[in-house]
Amino acid sequence: MSNDGAWISLFSGGKDSSWALYRALEEGLPVSRLVTVHPSEDSYMYHVPATELTALAAESVGLPLSEVDPGDLAATEAVDASAQGDAELEPLEAALVALAETEPGGIAGLTAGAVESEFQTSRIEAMCERLGCALFAPLWRREPSMLAREMLDAGFEIHVVQVAAAGLDESWLGRTFDEEALTELEGLNERYGVHVLGEGGEFETLVVAGPHMDRRIEYEAETEWDGTRGRLRITEARIS
Known about the structure:
The longest helix is centred in the middle third of the chain and has 22 residues, at 81-102. The chain has helices spanning 15-26, 54-61, 81-102, 118-131, 144-154, 179-192, and strands spanning 6-10, 31-37, 65-68, 107-111, 134-136, 157-163, 203-209, 217-225, 230-239. It is built from 6 helices and 9 strands; from the N terminus they run βαβαβαβαβαβαβββ. It is globular and about 50 Å long. α3 (81-102) packs parallel to α4. It has 240 residues and is of the alpha/beta class. The strands form 2 sheets. A 5-stranded parallel beta sheet has the order 3-2-1-4-5, with helices on both faces. The chain has a 4-stranded antiparallel beta sheet with strand order 7-6-9-8, with helices on one face. It folds into 2 domains: 6-136, Rossmann fold (3-Layer(aba) Sandwich); 144-239, putative n-type atp pyrophosphatase, domain 2 (Alpha-Beta Complex), CATH 3.90.1490.10.
């Protein structure tokens, strides 16, 4: 891959985008900035929970952060998933076009944490074509359990911050995604079809520490649970 121009990391603070960033840095790609989209609750394109902590994560990683507000999609004419996905991408693309004008050499490439979603990846690939840049997606089509263990072996500390699937109860909220949790998820995959990386929206995560981070994210949270699904609502956070 070319190192001409800047590399931008599409970043949510979750395990997948964090792994894409980490692998890009390991490959020597000159990542100069993180970009976070703060989506609405019903996003088709983006990781939703705890994106407010990406500023702390960026500080720990040591890279500047650009934050994108996708606006109120309820006011758009998006009437189905495809149209909404396209509409959600527009503010991100506009932000990247603006960044390309400020980065020496423009944007050489983007990192993305896509694992299996053709819906998301096809749109990001098309956006990269329009921007004239490369896409680095090191998780794409990887075997999920093997990929999860690579994250753990590398020293990622991952917390579950949202769940919405059979077999994932309130006790999973705030739980560390470790080898024991992964083994349980493999069992839930066999029983209910739960994706061990949460690719189907079964759960969402937050990386609080890792080899690419100088300081750990500490947080306080309240649990929101409706009987079948729930999330952590972060009430206080800092890096230590």
